[in-house]
Design brief:
Elements lengths: L3 H17 L7 E2 H7 L6 H10 L12 E2 L16 H7 L5 E2 L2 E2 L2 H4 L3 H5 L1
Parallel strand pairs: 1-2
Antiparallel strand pairs: 3-4
This protein binds a DNA duplex (13 and 13 nucleotides) through helix 2, helix 3 and strand 2.
DNA sequence: CTCGTGACTCCCC
DNA sequence: AGGGGAGCCACGA
């Protein structure tokens, strides 16, 4: 049985939970995660969670989360200019102009895996 | 407590 | 085609 306090921490925890399950070489979007959590409009919160994910003890592959266009909107929040890009490329994902090439091929829908 | 802001997205003009 | 507004919710000042 859940109490109200549980539901308060649900969102961020679920975000981290989903992000950690993104397979190697795959990516997903803020919107899909938010949608999976039941609040399609709360994509901004996912981004906020990613920002805060830096303080999480467990590893959160934030580089695998991009905006709906496959653009690396969060790259500026990594330590270095090319960190996010390098991480993705090391997983076999091609990047050009901060955009993921063949984004749809690498897209991982949380609903498909977790339903 | 109130206000502003943000790694987003959708809708309308 | 591109710009503006609204909704979402947590968090810091």
């Amino acid at each position: 049985m859940r109490n109200e306090k549980d539901s308060q921490i649900d969102f961020f925890e679920k975000v981290y939970d989903v992000v950690r399950q993104i397979p190697y070489g795959k990516v997903t979007t803020y919107g899909l995660i938010a949608k999976h959590l039941g609040s399609p409009q709360a994509a901004r919160m996912v981004g906020w969670a990613m920002n805060k994910s830096h303080y999480q003890e467990n590893y959160v592959p934030a580089q695998r989360v991009v905006n709906r266009n496959g653009m690396l909107s969060g790259k500026h929040h990594f330590n270095g200019e090319h960190v996010m890009e390098d991480l993705l490329m090391s997983e076999g994902i091609q990047i050009k102009n901060d955009c993921i090439i063949d984004f749809e091929k690498h897209l991982w829908d949380p609903e498909a895996f977790l339903k």
